[in-house]
Amino acid sequence: VHSTDSHKFLGISLDYRLSGSYYIRSLSARCSKLLNIINMLRGTWWGGAPSSLLNIYKALIRGSMEYGCLTFPFNNHSAMRNLENIQLRALCACLGLRKITPTNIVLAEAGEGPLRFRFEFLTSKYILKIFALDSHP
Known about the structure:
5 helices; two-stranded antiparallel sheet; mainly alpha
């Protein structure tokens, strides 16, 4: 039996310190590849509509980020900053905005909120759902 620093279970990489850094690195790489799909679909004259590109963002990139949000350590600011940077790049690509557009304007134009609040909302929703079950130990 070999000793490893991390183990992948249901697509989420857990390391022995439960810091989530290995999973967030792999998630960032995966989302950067998915961002290339959005960049290919957008164009100045022939590209997809911003609403269609936002739907693709929500399905591919945001869905990938939300899948393991229960395992993210919320105190890891550099990891959250990395994910928020990917979110900002994706939303700028979807809306056709420049990369130097301020974050609050990009989020308002897209109708999205910061990832940290979204992750906290989903975590709270899951915990309340578990507490509401009578059959849960």
